[in-house]
Specification:
Elements lengths: L1 H16 L1 H25 L5 E2 L2 E2 H18 L4 H10 L4 H4 L5 H31 L9 H27 L8 H14 L20 H23 L1 H33 L10 H30 L1 E4 L30 E4 L6 H12 L3 H9 L44
Antiparallel strand pairs: 1-2, 3-4
Helix pairs in contact: 1-6, 2-3, 2-6, 3-6, 4-7, 9-10, 10-11, 10-12
Length: about 425
């Protein structure tokens, strides 16, 4: 044990040379703590608990996690071990009565003592700002049990890094393995959010599928009702109608293009001893199922995410029946000018056009349509784009992939050459 104690002292002295690097790392980590405080403060705004945990408990969790990363985190051990293998420095340990694993563990412990002490000092600097939000356990035995658990966690961290470093015997680069392990460790280690943070009345091991489905449907209907109350019944119904029609129109046109592509190449299945007709029927059925799923998923995403703000006096009864009519408006980013509205959210390109149509239906009816057609100031109708046609003689032929001569903008094979 004396030789490993000397290795620990040597490692302690070598890490003290880089003490300012550790200090700078710990101080810059305070910016991460500030972000955690602001982020979780916004999540807990107006709430006392989430999943059975209060804001003080969640913040204390991240403060302890911040400190533990400096005491148990294996930062560069895997790379140092791989460098010893590549440079042949590991050969000297084969000729000496010393265990390489124990030697690296002693150096790792020395590095963690230095980085942990500097991280603790950085935490003391931020403690006056977070002192009012701490929720430490009142039982001393919990802290006493946490110390050996921390030591075992550090041993596990080092063992994982040691195994990845030993991969240098077989692989030239181990960076991919290290990055993968860091990603898994970040997610499963609760560095994004506490793993126990969730609905306290739902047990992941015993929850029934129907219960979970009912919970999701109930939450979706609650949010839908909130949107309906904010937009008004009349505007919400018009918005639903036109969003669904626009989504169906867009996806159906894409489905027709997909069917054309499928029909062009389905004959090649015959080379694989597959009946092209049977393959066409099967793949067309799959494409139609994808069409239906995409229609409803896009519609649900837009109806929950689209944002509409109407300028004008608010109506009574939530904008439903009775009261003053809804002020005319138009969708931002759309050429229709039926009023004033700002639109954001959603994903589909059909969103703005649907909003404009919903505005015309839920607004002033024919007046809104007239304003959309002739402009709010009664000006002339906007000129339609000129369609240019090509006149071809017998000497010039149109290729299948050339633009069609009719000026539709489509390829010849998709238009008059079909």
């Amino acid at each position: 044990m004396l030789k490993y104690r000397h290795a620990f002292i040597v490692g302690l002295q070598s890490n003290l040379v880089y003490r300012w690097n550790f200090a700078a790392r710990s101080l810059f980590s305070l910016f991460h703590l500030a972000f955690v405080f602001i982020f979780w403060g916004a999540i807990y705004a107006g709430k006392t608990e989430i999943g059975g945990f209060g804001f003080a408990q969640t913040l204390t969790y991240f403060l302890v996690l911040f400190l533990l990363q400096f005491f148990i985190g294996a930062f560069n051990e895997d790379y140092q071990i791989s460098e010893d293998i590549r440079n042949g420095l590991i050969n000297q340990f084969l000729l000496k009565p010393i265990n390489y694993f124990a030697y690296r563990l002693s150096v790792f412990a020395a590095a963690r003592v230095v980085s942990g002490a500097l991280g603790f000092m950085a935490l003391l600097v931020a403690l006056p700002f977070f002192r009012g939000y701490l929720a430490l356990p009142h039982d001393a035995w919990r802290i006493a049990l946490g110390l050996p658990a921390m030591a075992l966690t550090g041993l596990i961290q080092f063992s994982i890094a040691y195994c990845f470093g030993m991969l240098a015997f077989w692989f030239l680069e181990i960076q991919g393995f290290v990055i993968l392990s860091m990603a898994v460790e970040t997610v499963l280690g609760g560095q994004f959010f506490p793993l126990d943070l969730g609905d306290e009345d739902l047990d992941r091991d015993t929850v029934d599928r129907n219960v979970l489905t009912d919970r999701i449907v109930e939450e979706a209907m609650t949010r839908y009702k909130a949107r309906e109350d904010s937009l008004g019944t009349e505007l919400m119904e018009a918005l639903e109608r036109f969003l669904l029609l626009q989504t169906i129109d867009e996806r159906w046109r894409e489905h027709l293009f997909d069917m054309d592509y499928l029909r062009e190449g389905i004959h090649l299945r015959g080379f694989a001893q597959i009946d092209p007709l049977v393959a066409y029927k099967n793949e067309a059925f799959v494409l139609f199922g994808d069409l239906m799923n995409s229609v409803w998923s896009d519609y649900a995403r837009m109806i929950y995410n689209v944002q509409v703000s109407v300028d004008g006096p608010p109506t009574q009864n939530g904008g439903g029946q009775g009261g003053a009519p809804i002020a005319p408006f138009s969708a931002a980013g759309n050429s229709t000018r039926a009023g004033r509205v700002s639109y954001s959210g959603g994903h589909s390109a059909a969103g703005s056009g649907a909003l404009a149509a919903a505005a015309a239906a839920a607004g002033l009816g024919s007046n809104a349509s007239a304003e959309a057609a002739f402009g709010e100031d009664g000006g002339e109708m906007e000129a339609l784009p000129v369609v240019e046609q090509r006149v071809l003689d017998d000497e010039h032929q149109v290729g299948r992939n050339d633009p069609c001569w009719c000026g539709s903008g489509k390829k010849f094979k998709k238009c008059h050459g079909a």
